[in-house]
Amino acid sequence: MYASGANKGFDHSIEAVKAFIEQYEKFQYYQVSDNYDAKTFQLSGIRLDLQLFFNIGLKLSNEDYFPKWYDNSEFKAARK
To answer: How far is residue 65 from each of residues 18, 26, 74, measured CA to CA in Å?
Structure first.
């Protein structure tokens, strides 16, 4: 599972968030200036992502049904 809430902000439009990400990736990503900045990074959605992952994990861990794989799945072969 992968969650990326970077395309929509709680307080900003999708366009504003995309513009911020584009600027960040172009000028800061993997640069010396690539540091966490509490003034510009919005982390409010992380709690929602973590709650979702926790709920899915909790439900799966309490299931008595084991997932089945398709016959040609690489995961089925690895399980055997």
So the answer is: 41, 46, 20
Residue-wise pLDDT tens digits, 28-39: 889 888 888 888
CA atoms within 13 A on the CB side of 80: 9
21 within 8 A of 6, measured Cβ to Cβ: yes
Of the candidates 58, 37, 43, which has an alpha carbon nearest to the alpha carbon of residue 3? 43
Q: Which amino acid is at 22?
A: E
Question: Among the listed ranges 15-24, 33-42, 48-57, which one has the minimum average pLDDT value?
Answer: 33-42
Output the six-digit token pair for 68: 């089945």
* Mean pLDDT of the 6-17 span: 75
Q: What angle do CA 61, 64, 66 make, to 5 degrees?
A: 85
Contact 39, 28 (CB under 8 A): no
Measured distance CA(56)–CA(79) in Å, rounded: 21
